[in-house]
Amino acid sequence: MIPEEKVVEVRDRADIVALVREYVDLKRSGTSLKGLCPFHNEKSPSFHVHPDRGFFHCFGCQVSGDAITFLMRIDGLAFPEAVRVLAERVGVEITQLDDEEASAARQARARRERLLSVLESAAGFFVKSLTEHRFGPMAWAELSKRGIERPAVERYRLGYAPHGWDELATFLSRRGVSPRDAEQVGLIVPRKSGEGHYDRFRHRLMFPIADTHGKIVAFSGRALDPPPGEEELREAPAKYVNSPETALYKKSDILFGLHEARVELRRDGVALLCEGNFDVVGLSQHGFANVVAPLGTAFTEAQAKLLHRFVSTAILLFDGDAAGRKAVRAAQPLLARAGIAGKVVTMPAGADPDSFLRDRGAAALRALIDQAPPIVDWLIERAAQEAGRDPAARANAIEELGPVLGAIDSPVERRLYVERVAHAFEIRDIEVVRDQLRRGARSGPRPARRAAPAASAPAPAALPRRSGAPLPAIEAQLVGAFLDQPNLHGTECAEKVHSLLTSEELRAIFLLTARWVGARGVDASALLEEFPEGPARYWLERRLAVQEFEDEASATRFVERAVPRLDRERIARETKRLRREFLEAKRAGDDVRAEALMRQMNESFRGAQHPGPEAER
Predict the structure, then answer these.
(1) Does the N-terminal or the C-terminal CB of the chain have fewer CB atoms within 10 Å?
(2) CA–CA gap between residue 144 and residue 282 (Å, rounded)
(3) Domains in the chain, ordered, with CATH?
(4) Residue 552 CB neighbours (<10 A)
(5) CA–CA gap between residue 284 and residue 292 (Å, rounded)
């Protein structure tokens, strides 16, 4: 458990503007900055960041919070993980209670950082070699053939692993990297005979693989045509060579392109799931920024869970061959188990997303994506088509759909799909179809159930619902003046303001504003922790993201105008109450009470006629 004082220190030190600017193009708007919200689609910027308060708020989707909250939402992190990531960023050491554990944790962190640094150096070497090595143009030729242009190359940090046996090993050695570290991250391999190492990646187009934080943890190298003079001197190499699994990299847990796509994934709530690296780079280049792919392996349950931290829907753009159809079928229960709605784009035979995009263009691919049917519908229709008219094949195809329908959690949805299977296979007796599906479900894998969204990482599509009566406008603006300029709490008018507020929620905010004033103004996070969901918190979230009164003088002028107005409204309410009680006393024959109430009404009336010098300015 992270000590509360450490959380506060991390929050205070974090530069929320610098953090948000890594994801959002912010422009100055008064004392705040604003840009397009990274959590939902919008054309006009409604996402505000207040640097002094360390706070953000979107006036479109109502998401708000501090730097920790932003990192949790944008990268799908749990609270402790987000605090630790920010702590490393701002130089706050979070120690364990046990000294031995703390020492081990520091050593593990130092080792991880050292290995990440080795991979980062290798990435820089590959990028430089793409431009400067004599065979770099061969890698550029492959990129050109695929239609990949320089901005996409730079965005994904593509590079070239030089021809030769030990160019990377020599480079790393000269930088003081130990061969052991380079070997542990899979960059070099020990020679089978003699001493020394050789490069794992040679004469290949290089794709860096990053984790969700953008740290390079591995590489994928694509084979190129042989260098001049070696066309007939060597066997055809493997099409792709990937980093082995290491302490930093487990291929079944990472999606290629996730770090680059994470903002768009959050904003859309939809992922385009492809099969290859070129698919990701090519689609991203043509405006499909929410695209990711597995890494040299079938889509896994861990990858589905990772994707669920960012989206609620995945559209599969697998190849149109038998292997692609098999991949769709294998992905369906994994998506269902993770709580992700799946859809499928049917690629023409022999085409993959990258080649389709180059041949037909972005508009044609967008049309396919927009028309993509749900994955279960796609599997049913495809099974019926492939079975044809052969009775045995049709019975077997229905049986194989048993686990597919078994992965559906909703009984109503499952029943409707049973009817859809019967219709697709042109069988009128639904009970016969249901029995065949049950047989398949019993013999197939256990049904997958949809997982509930993790409490620590809210689903992207879930937006808070706001309800309740609106807060009094003039009172809200008055409290806002004290939020913007908390030094006003030390003036004579502060006590008067408190007595004039009719809203209990605004009165609470007013009092707590004085308590939570720090060196940079109001502590937004601490203030918000005092309020449950409701109109007051909703108003406070919005108000903390902007600053209406940029200096104390303007706030003071407004307060001096607003206080007499609220005082007159108070007097009017008081007069109305006294008049009602006066009439009740007269009807009851209580002349003494009626006379006392009349005197109070006269005094109240005189107060309304002479509001004081502040109101006459």
Answers:
(1) N
(2) 11
(3) 4-90 (3.90.580.10), 108-228+235-249 (3.90.980.10), 268-443 (3.40.1360.10), 473-609 (1.10.860)
(4) 15
(5) 9
Rounded to whole angstroms, how far apart are CA atoms 37 and 155?
A: 21
Residue 616's pLDDT band (boundaries 50, 70, 90)? very low
Are 538 and 509 in contact by the 8 Å Cβ rule? The answer is no
Can you point out the beta strands (E) in 151-286? 159-161, 188-190, 197-199, 204-210, 216-223, 240-242, 270-273
Q: Please, what is the angle between helix 258-268 and helix 67-75, to 10°?
A: 100
pLDDT in tens, 86-125: 998 888 887 654 566 667 767 887 888 899 999 999 999 9
- Phi and psi at 155, nearest 5°, equal -60, -45
Which residue carries 């179809």 as its tokens?
Answer: 433
Question: Minimal CA–CA distance to 261: which of 289, 285, 280?
Answer: 289
Dihedral sign from CA coordinates of 404, 410, 413, 418: positive
| Dihedral in degrees, nearest 10, Cα atoms 599, 603, 604, 609 | 140
> What is the rounded distance in angstroms from the CA atom of residue 478 to the CA atom of residue 507?
11
| Angle of CA points 610, 614, 616, to nearest 5° | 65
Residue 306 three-state SS:
helix
Give the Cα separation of 200 and 512 in Å (integer): 61
Q: Can you give the C-alpha Rg of the chain in angstroms?
A: 32
DSSP state of 250: -
Percent helix, strand, coil in the chain, to 5, is: 55, 10, 35
Instruction: Please give, one letter per residue, the 3-state secondary structure of 587-607.
Output: HCCCHHHHHHHHHHHHHHHHH
Dist. CA 136–CA 101, nearest whole Å: 47
pLDDT at residue 283 tops 50: yes
Tracing tokens 């559209």 back to the chain, one arrives at: 315
Can you tell me the distance from the alpha carbon of 257 to that of 277, in angstroms, rounded to the nearest whole number?
Answer: 8
Strand, helix or coil for residue 10: helix
